[in-house]
């Protein structure tokens, strides 16, 4: 990937997500709110925890306006923008293995705060069994997960240290000195994330 010219659509999605996330910054840091995030709700989609026998599908093969569940398929994803810990859904941006980028909204989750932070950190990998692709209420496409039981985490495959901007999986040793969470392969990528994708919107001191 050319690190100076990211896909404009991807940039647009990232900026929208980061602006929304920055609006939730105060709420995400409040302890009562973190506790309230963990709740149990009815489950509506079939649960499968075994990926055997399922065919891998890619975002480019799915059509949001079809508004359907791709039964028997598995969508393998990497988190590229961490979730907005909002209710009732938890939206994030993820990328498939063919560089397709999409919003993923998870409903009815009952993971605790630490599990959420760990499993959906930048670079985390997970699969969605029987993915549901639709046009959301804002008129844009999204993968909707009603049953978190259809999500399979792949912690051993995660690459949380890859470059935030160009996603090069090399040892990214340059980091944002404020949040200490964002790593980059070069100063150029650090600057691009700040300038093009407005890293400051999601940059918080821990
Ligand atoms: Zn880079
Ligand atoms: Zn930062």
Looking at this protein, list some descriptive labels.
206 residues, 24% strand, binds zinc ion, two-stranded antiparallel ribbon
Please characterize this protein's 3D structure.
The chain is of the alpha+beta class. The chain has one domain: OB fold (Dihydrolipoamide Acetyltransferase, E2P). It is built from 5 helices and 11 strands; from the N terminus they run αααβββββαββββββα. The strands form 2 sheets. Strands 1, 2, 3, 4, 5, 6, 7, 8 and 9 form a 9-stranded mixed sheet that branches. Strands 10-11 form a two-stranded antiparallel sheet. The two termini are 31 Å apart. 31% of the residues are buried. The model has no long low-confidence stretch (mean pLDDT 88). The structure holds zinc ion (2 copies). The site of one zinc ion has 9 residues, from loops.
Q: What's the quick description here?
A:
The chain is an alpha+beta fold.
């Amino acid at each position: 990937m050319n690190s100076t010219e990211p896909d404009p659509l991807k940039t647009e999605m990232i900026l929208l997500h980061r602006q929304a996330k920055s609006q939730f910054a105060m709420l995400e840091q409040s302890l009562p709110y973190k506790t309230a995030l963990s709740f149990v709700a009815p489950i509506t989609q079939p649960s499968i925890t075994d990926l055997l026998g399922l065919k891998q599908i890619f975002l480019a093969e799915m059509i949001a306006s079809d508004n359907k569940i791709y039964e028997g398929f598995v969508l393998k994803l990497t988190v590229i923008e961490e979730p907005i810990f909002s209710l009732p859904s938890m939206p994030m941006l993820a990328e498939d293995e063919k560089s397709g980028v999409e919003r993923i909204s998870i409903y009815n989750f009952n993971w605790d705060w630490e599990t959420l932070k760990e499993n959906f950190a930048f670079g985390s990998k997970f699969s969605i069994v029987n993915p549901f692709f639709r046009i959301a209420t804002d008129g844009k496409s999204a993968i909707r997960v009603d049953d978190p039981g259809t999500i399979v985490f792949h912690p051993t495959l995660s690459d949380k240290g890859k470059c935030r901007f160009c996603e090069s999986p090399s040892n990214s040793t340059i980091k944002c000195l404020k949040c200490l969470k964002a790593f980059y392969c070069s100063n150029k990528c650090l600057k691009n994330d700040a300038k093009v994708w407005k890293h400051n919107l999601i940059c918080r001191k821990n």
